[in-house]
Amino acid sequence: MPDSHDPAGQHGAATAETPLVVALLGNPNTGKSTLFTAVAGIPTRIGNFPGVTVEEKRGRFEAAGRTIELIDLPGIYSLTPRSPDEQVATDVLAGRQAGVPEADVVVVLADATAIERSCYLVSQVLDRGLPVVVAVTLGDIARERGIEIDLDRLASRLGCFVVGVVAPRGEGLDRLTEAILLAADAPPPPAPQLPSIQIPAGPRSPAAREAIARYAWIEATLEGLVSHRAVTRRSLAEQIDAVLTHRLAGLLFFVAVMLVVFSSIFWLATPLMDRCVAAVDWLGGAVEASLPAGAIRSLIVDGLIAGVGGVVVFLPQIAILFVCVALLEGCGYLARAAYLMDRLLAGVGLSGRSFIPLLSSFACAIPGIMATRTIENRRDRLLTILVAPLMSCSARLPVYLLFTAAFVPNTAVAGLSWLRLPAVVLVAMYAVGVVTAAVVALLLSRTILRGPPQPFVMELPGWRWPQPAVVLERVREACWSFLHNAGTLIVAVSVVIWALASYPHDESAILAEIEGERASLEARLAAIDADGEAAGREEIAAELERLATPAGLEAARRGAASRQSFLGRAGRLVEPLVRPLGWDWRIGCAAIASFPAREVVIGALSVIYNLGEVDPDQSEGSSMLSRRLRAATWDGSDRPVFTLPVALSIMVFFALCAQCASTLVVIGRETGSWVWPVFTFSYMTLLAWLAAFATYQLGSLFTGT
Amino acid sequence: MPSLATLAPGGSARVERLGGDDAITLRLLEMGLTPGVAVRVVGRAPLGDPIEVELRGYRLSLRRSEASRVEVTVAPAAVA
Q1: Which chain B positions have a beta carbon within 8 Å of A198's beta carbon?
Q2: Which terminus of chain A is more exposed, N or C, with fewer CB under 10 A?
Q3: Rounded Cα–Cα distance for residues A307 and A313 (Å)
């Protein structure tokens, strides 16, 4: 135990080995991150407090020959512990948070523009009997609004150190560190003497009475210290505010901002992602060229490097989304976006805070789930994480496009020549995800995530300039935590899947299967020739010709190897399960093989259908796969596998399934529990199966197949 | 007695008392919606809910269901 409350001045003996521990506390939106970055720079440690999913950030700096360890506590309004954030802050101040040293000094931030409300937390901290420094922030904005606070008299009335700080300009930082060092050696300030109050009616619980008494104490303490000067000129902030709060202009502005956010993660990230993929491909190619063919090379190239590629490919989207979120948060717009969208989401048990994470999930669920860190309410955050993967992400688009192009006839809908069926099907796929997410959110919020009504009482901070250092720090933090926490696990999962798809590898069994195929093709050709029928002859002849070429043989080898691997066997094993969806065992194989990521299903299908690896982005590869899929028949019959109902059933399945190992890993990391990824995978797979089943059965009924 | 939820945008009032005595009421009190404080309704979200109010020098968003707990007396001139 550190000697934190020892009045004998032992802090003076504190050396670099025993740093002075300073807890940083404040309301949200008081510039806490800006102050942290300005004082301590890049954090020395970021993670969660032990046992809870509350972010812990620590930094170190030197002042007057002493090392100061700064512990950033979550932004809260009250120390009455009801949320995990409030609980952690309370526990740290009480010195009973595991793994966190007892605080020697508490720095409480107070927003000069909302000094009364800020003093609520200050008064609660003063109760704890710890050395306190009150840092009054945002004084520049307060002055613009004509607010002046007499800090010296405030200090004498509170009995603790009070320092005015404008962190973005570096104002008052020296005085703050000076005050911290002085406070560490001074006796703690007295606890506030709350007045006894008469409440004629209304809430009478001790907590409610205490809250009312605290505000009475605050009003008495601040009496005569805050002067309001009438400001004639409208500040820039007020002019912006007039637009943002305007019913129509505010909404239009919101739509414009959201379009910018969405299109930047969707389009701006694409070239960067392509570069990541190209770099990883290059690395894979280089390793492939320098190693002899065999199991080791395959492990490194197809397992390890491909796995790393699957991790870094998400970084551009995460980085860009966090730039957007940090900018919106920094200028105070994030809360306003939540305010504007709250009604829409409140209906299904969510809140306005879920809007940006869910919107982002249309590009990719991973940055979307990470962006739920901006949702303070734990239940809302969990609910948002659980439904975010239902939004149709960009990885589903190639699947939709392939099957729509190959199997949905390009006919007009409802007699409207401009309304084409493929477009309607595509829109329907996106709608399926949104509607399902709404229903699931509603059901979960009324069943397993049921709880007392959650208040949506949220401060709408004024307009201010985002701090570049804080934005950069937020982006760095998000990328690093993804690479460090999720990345390693995603690579491990990729290697396991690679092993399942590559083994067992029995060359003689593979060659035997190819020979069997060749014999069956030759037999069918002979039968056709005997009947004198021309139909189908060309395709079979072309197939045989392809098998005779080196590329065709290699593709056939890879196809046979994948069908004989553990994954292929699993596909055959689940055939009874996928039969009701109209699928044959090969589709089952491809669906299982796409567990790492949905878009893998296209590559998996092309390998299983002996095409080798085709690039679905190239029209040639895509149309080749389309043709091959259309020609595919059930084993031992001429009945085609892929009909319109089957194609729709596959698309619906991929719209709702959780075939994305990275998303599941990130859910595990963000919720701090393996229960939730397992839950997400189970409910989404079940829903996907049911919806695909209904689609196939109804589709077969209508099309009469 | 009128509540904060029934106040028209632009309207000012004085908080009289709060209904309920649960976590939501406590949060409203902690945010400064205590008896006697002056409030002004700044506006409503485009879908009619939540509402934006100004009190103690800052802006607060609350749902109408929450605002309906806050009983007020309408006082056109009572702006702090």
Answers
A1: none
A2: N
A3: 10
**Taking CA atoms, what residue in B is nearest to A116?**
B56
Phi, psi of A136 (to 5 degrees): -85, 110
Q: What is the DSSP letter of B31?
A: T
In a domain, A253, yes or no: yes
What are A406's two structure tokens?
Answer: 């190959």
Quote the minimal CA–CA distance from A352 to chain B in Å: 10
Structure tokens at B48: 């009619």
Share of chain A above pLDDT 70, in %: 94
Q: Which of B4, B17, B34, B54 to mutate against chain A (most A CBs within 10 Å)?
A: B34
pLDDT band at residue A471 using 50, 70 and 90 as cut-offs: very high
| Closest chain B C-alpha to A247 CA, distance in angstroms | 6
Higher pLDDT, A554 or A138: A138
CATH of the domain at A72: 3.40.50.300
How far apart (Å, rounded) are the C-alpha atoms in residues A474 and A494?
Answer: 28
Cβ-defined contact of A342 to B50 (cutoff 8 Å): yes
Does the structure's ipTM exceed the value 0.90?
Answer: yes
Is the CB of A120 less than 8 angstroms away from the CB of B32? yes
Residue A290: its H or E element: helix A269-290
The helix (run of H) or strand (run of E) holding residue A317 is helix A315-330
Chain B residues near any Cβ of chain A (below 8 Å): 17-32, 34-35, 37, 42-50, 52, 56-63, 65-66
Residue A354 lies in a domain: yes
Sign of CA dihedral A629, A634, A638, A644: negative
Same domain, A363 and A285: yes
Split into its structural domains, chain A has a count of 3
Tell me whether residues A343 and B52 touch, CB distance under 8 A.
Answer: no
Cβ atoms of A137 and A31 within 8 Å: the answer is yes
- The burial of A229, by beta-carbon neighbours within 10 Å (0-12 exposed, 13-18 middle, 19 or more buried), is given as exposed
Query: Which tens digits make up the pLDDT trace of A591-623?
Result: 888 888 887 787 777 777 766 665 555 556 667
- Asked if the peptide bond before residue A504 counts as cis, ω within 30 degrees of 0, the response is yes
For B4-74, which CATH class?
Answer: mainly beta
Residue with the two structure tokens 């950033």: A72
In a domain, A75, yes or no: yes
Of B17, B23, B65, the CB nearest to A201: B17
Q: A418-440 burial string, b = 16+ CB within 10 Å, else e?
A: eebebeebbeebbebbeebbbeb
How does pLDDT run across A410-440, given as a tens digit for each residue?
A: 888 888 888 888 889 999 999 999 999 999 9
> Which residues are within 8 A (CB) of A543 and not within 5 positions of it... i.e. 6 or more apart?
A521
**Is position A685 within any domain?**
no
Domain that holds residue A157: 10-228
Confidence of residue A36 (pLDDT cuts 50, 70, 90): very high
Q: Least CB-CB distance to B52: which of A111, A344, A460?
A: A460
pLDDT tens, residue by residue, A189-224: 988 988 877 766 666 788 999 999 999 999 999 999
Chain B neighbors of A204, CB-CB under 8 A: 21
Number of Cα atoms under 13 Å in the Cβ half of residue A481? 26
| pLDDT tens per residue across span A148-176 | 999 999 999 999 999 999 998 999 999 99
Question: Are residues A48 and A158 part of one domain?
Answer: yes
CB-CB neighbors (< 8 A) of B57 in chain A? 113-117, 147
Residue A51 and residue A178 in one domain: yes
**Cβ-contact A59, A44 below 8 angstroms:** yes
